[in-house]
Structures are given as structure tokens and as C-alpha cells.
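**User:** My hope is that you can spare some time for a protein that puzzles me. I have put the entry right below:
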Amino acid sequence: ALYRRHEPGWELMHCHDELPVLPIDLVAAHHYTSTYPLVSFRQGLMLARHSPDRHTTITDSTVTIRRPGQPTEHRRISVFEAIDLLRELAVPLTEPELLRLTDTLLALRGPAAEPSR
């Protein structure tokens, strides 16, 4: 089990067992998470990256930064700030891919959700 310190104590984040994982298990899980329409991975941006001094999680509308010994920072972000954070975290996307992602994120937020940059 993986826990994180959270007020008022420890919060369960993830657990797993020691059963063997077969290649077909991964194929089936990947197929489900990439094709089933209601899976959250198909509904928006999700990225997590560990750095030497922090753990950053980005969604299409929020960023969460966890640093050892400091309070967790969680705030809403604009589409353009999300793209800037992807660049800052060295996510290997080309400029055309970033432009396409920007358009997709703007579409997720609906018309007139963000001013143009």
C-alpha cells in the first residue's frame, strides 16, 4: 500500500498485490483505458511527473504540486498555463502536437472559456 501524509493523518493513495502480471493483462487494461468512452483518461489531460524537488500533477484545468515538508499547492490553471507547464516539465511533444493539444483543451472547456493568447 502507498500512503501519503495528509491531515489529520495518513491517506491511502494506492494499493496492489503480488500476483503475477501477464502481458495480456496489460493489453486488456490498456485497451479499456484508451477506448472506453467514459474512462477519465479520454475526457481530459492528466499528467504526473516526479522531479528531484517535487511531484507535479496537471489536468486540463488544475495543477497540484507536492514538495517534501511543504503544504500541497493546488490551483486552477488556464489552458495556456497547462501548455506552459508541459513545456516546463519537458514533456516530449512537438510544437504541432502542442497546438493540437491546445485546441483540444479549449474545446473541452467550451466556447469562450479562454481568451486567445
Observations:
- The longest helix spans residues 95-109.
- Residues 3 and 11 are 5 Å apart (CA to CA).
